[in-house]
Design brief:
The protein is mainly α. The protein is about 60% helix and about 10% strand. The strands form three sheets. A three-stranded mixed sheet has the order 1-2-3. A three-stranded mixed sheet has the order 6-7-8. A hairpin with a 2-residue loop joins strand 4 and strand 5 (about 305). Helix 2 (about 45-50) packs parallel to helix 7. It is globular, with a radius of gyration of 24 Å.
Length: about 375
Amino acid sequence: MESESVKSNLLVRILFYVVGFLIMTLGIAISVKSDMGVSPVSSIPYTMTCIWGIEMGRATILFHAALVLIQIIILRKAFKMVNLIQVPVGILFGSFTTFSNHLMDFFPDPANMTVQVVMALVSTVFIAFGIFLYVPANFIPLAAEGVMLAVSKVTGIKFSNAKLSFDISVVIISLITCLIAIKSLGSVGIGTIIAAVLVGINLKLITRVLGTTRDKILGANAAVAKESAADITVDTPLLRIMKRDVYTIRNNDSLMDALKLLAEKKVSGVPVLNENDEVVGFISDGDIIRHLTSERSLFVDSCSLEKIEFNQSIVKLLSKEVSTIASKKIITVDASDDLDNVCYKLGENHLKKAPVIQDGRMIGIINVSNIIKYAVELMEAG
């Protein structure tokens, strides 16, 4: 039964991954159709199309292959062969780009500026929704994200800053290239600015509305952020042994949802996330029981239980949100921490587990049992 559940979850993640790619490329195709400029990450492939006439899907594949080569140059010996899978992922993304652009051929060109602006706005929604589905699937990332992570790893710059620098760089390169080669803005325009601003905003709104439903469908932690979805370029003992599939609960979910999750997944506690997928607390079965017993004294003696009072307390308790009783003080470890520092934090705070945080986002959870197993394996290997 457990293997069937894992297999089912894998199929769902693959579906999210592929459909997310398709929806993202539909958004890109709509932005191309609007003729107002494309999103930053697509600006260079579209520039290749504008200047050399290369079909955009093929240009996208070439761009992704070049980005993998850049990762090899940046990381050198630290580059892992598994990252080469980003090349076929780029081929898949490029093929979807070709399909989506062909699909747009069936629609008429925008008649005026208003229609163009509307199309640019709609494209940001599609791109955001594609990211919303693709990122939490937590498979091989697109090569652009791989480059950002490589830069972040080598320079120590935060991923968010690396991404901003990357987006600005490709837009500037595209703009200068188009101005020199074809004497026009080409791939860069108002739509590029609209995408740069609104994709992130739309993603937050979509996550706020549909995030909980998405997470429940995935059946595991869907809060793995964009900056951690591609962490295959990083390899440390902590990241190697931590548990990546982490069950979580939203701070505005009901305690009934929390109880169901704890019972169904057979875990004693889970991290609590806010609407931005940030860890804001922790709730355990002990927290719920302690809160329940604090409502009123339930036990009269060791052999007597007032069932009416218990039932009333249960009804009252389950109507509350998780945030009302979740522990706000939560000890976390950073993704860059050494295992000795992790052990110190767990021991000093009498904890059996702690969330692993990278750039403010949770990418996994480390258990004492993970560390003990790792230590035993080291001893046996020695």
